[in-house]
């Protein structure tokens, strides 16, 4: 049995990526994810890997593109404004069907904002992470253990579907320390016959490219890519449900907000309110089925987020007007408290007669 170790979230992300086979890391320092890059700078040379602090976030994501094109497992990390700078390169990764892992340890925004935790990059990650018709697979861990588990899983998903995968964490999770069981080192990897890694005249040249001058060719490739997205939506939805079997009020929260909401849900249950919690783990694909399963008992939904209201749009799309959906959150790095969330649950329960 693996031994538990006490690790900071940023360090758990880095160590688990190494154990998943990542040997190329390109980044640029920005709070609150800098410890991840510092950890990689220390560990990569010992793993016969490459750590390179690029001259900018733009340079870093294009280095990821180059390494991914050879079939290598590669990763970059940043925080909110740094991810915005990487957006064009991420779109190129999507357009060339290249697997890579991108970490966003979110901070408050917009602009330079502040260094406190935030969840205000949800729309960016799930709606507009680069131009064109595209999606990323996006995971939102809520513990240091999940930081380790999902970055490890992300490399496999990236390779399976030939797509970039994002871990959408936040400054609270990146900086906190918790016990974590690290995964075993991965020793087997899927073949990548598409990789541009030399051919010894044994196969045709592989070309990695996202430029298609003929509209019909580009349309065909986008249609093929969306067929893959349909498979991802059908098979890769992930969530956790807590006390939802008879819930009349369903709280929906992800990441650090879900930790706070869980405490409030427990208190509300103790006080006789039938409330449950759905914690989306995959933000794209959004866990629609988990919400659908609560429709028989739910009278209302409450989305709790550290932003001005972003994931609530996806909750409303699933509910589709069948029940009221309300939002509560703070922004700019202000963190909701369990008491505040409990009051919102109590008020909503009174409003709908739950």
Q: What does the model show?
A:
This protein is an alpha/beta fold. It has two domains: 4-235, Rossmann fold; 240-352, 3-Layer(aba) Sandwich (Rossmann fold). Helices cover 41% and strands 19% of the residues. The chain has twelve helices and 14 strands. It has helices at 9-19, 34-43, 57-69, 80-95, 122-127, 144-161, 171-175, 215-235, 255-270, 288-292, 311-319, 338-352; strands at 4-8, 24-27, 50-53, 74-78, 100-106, 137-139, 164-170, 177-181, 239-242, 249-253, 275-280, 282-284, 300-305, 325-329. It has a seven-stranded mixed beta sheet with strand order 3-2-4-5-7-6-12, sandwiched between helices. α1 (9-19) runs parallel beside α6 (144-161), α3 runs parallel beside α4 and α9 (255-270) packs across α12 (338-352). The longest helix has 21 residues, at 215-235. The radius of gyration is 21 Å and the shape is globular. The N and C termini lie far apart (45 Å).
Give me the CATH fold name of the largest domain.
Rossmann fold
- Main sheet characteristics: 7 strands, mixed
Our count of domains comes out at 2
Fourth-level CATH superfamily of the largest domain: Thiamin diphosphate (ThDP)-binding fold, Pyr/PP domains
- Total number of helices: 12
The rough form would be described as: globular
Radius of gyration: 21 Å
What proportion of the residues is helical, as a percent range? 40-55%
Summarize the structure.
The strands form 3 sheets. The chain has a 7-stranded mixed sheet with strand order 3-2-4-5-7-6-12, with helices on both faces. The protein has a 5-stranded mixed sheet with strand order 9-11-10-13-14, sandwiched between helices. The chain has a two-stranded antiparallel ribbon with strand order 1-8. The chain has 12 helices and 14 strands. With 354 residues, it is an alpha/beta fold.
